[in-house]
Specification:
About 75% of the residues lie in helices and about 0% in strands. The chain has about 250 residues and is mainly alpha-helical. The two termini are about 45 Å apart.
């Protein structure tokens, strides 16, 4: 399910909590709405509000940490690709075909992760190109000690490139546990129910609750978007790999 769809569901649930509070206000006897009752409910909701804020902060930190890890992994992958190309360039003309294949691999990688067709989801799963490059580098026949050391360095960098790709794939899974999100939304619905239960419904109250519910759902949307760095509105830029493509073959 998309981040936008989940956010609208959260908006509906939270707003439903506010409407439930209004209904309870109309149904409950007057003595249930006394000042003592209000104070008790406020204390309980204050505790839930504090816990909600802690969990919300935890989800933001988790999503931001996951986003930064993917961004750093992409930067490391880009650096390793340029380094591999430069090592092969210093090796000599024997690596011309390997460098051309490396360039094609980067083009395919960009198209795979950031497809031009927005309707098609991006994929970070590694292909067999990295293994093919490694085998071609391993098949080189160095004639000098310098070429031999460059081959070893190219093999190590090739392994680093493959490792970076697999790390991006391994980190693709969601860092936000679903139970956390479900319980958080339940707490938010309770809070909004308490807000409306002890307030006389009028235009100001309704608009305020509506805007607050919209703000909460927007916060959930941002968290979910950060948790999906290769899709959606907030995603990692392809600029690092496109800059790599400009440097390859030089």
């Amino acid at each position: 399910m998309s981040s936008m769809a989940i956010s609208w569901i959260v908006f509906g649930v939270v707003l439903g909590g506010a409407l439930l509070g209004m209904v309870l206000r109309a149904l409950l006897p007057e003595h249930h709405l006394s000042q003592d009752s209000k104070d008790t409910v406020k204390l309980g909701m204050g505790l839930i509000g504090t816990i909600t804020a802690l969990v919300l902060g935890l989800l933001v930190a988790s999503a931001k940490s996951s986003f930064d890890a993917q961004r750093n992994g992409l930067a490391q992958l880009s650096a390793n690709l340029i380094l591999l190309d430069r090592i092969l360039a210093h090796y000599g003309s024997d690596t011309k075909e390997i460098r051309e294949q490396l360039q094609q691999t980067v083009v395919m990688m960009i198209d795979q992760i950031w497809p031009e067709d927005r309707a098609r989801a991006g994929h970070v799963e590694p292909t067999t190109d990295s293994e093919s490059l490694y085998e071609q580098i391993q098949g080189l026949s160095p004639r000098t000690e310098s070429q031999r050391s460059l081959q070893v360095a190219a093999l190590k960098t090739g392994v680093d490139v493959a490792q970076a790709r697999w790390l991006l794939f391994a980190q693709k899974s969601s860092a936000i546990p679903t139970p956390f999100l479900v319980i958080l939304v339940f707490w938010l619905a309770l809070l909004f129910a308490s807000f409306s239960m002890f307030s006389r419904p009028n235009a100001t109250v309704v608009v305020t609750l509506l805007l607050c519910a919209l703000s909460v759902s927007a916060a959930i949307f941002l968290i979910l978007e950060l948790d999906r760095p290769f899709g959606g509105l907030i995603q990692l830029s392809s600029d690092p790999l496109r800059r790599v493509l400009e440097q390859l073959g030089r």
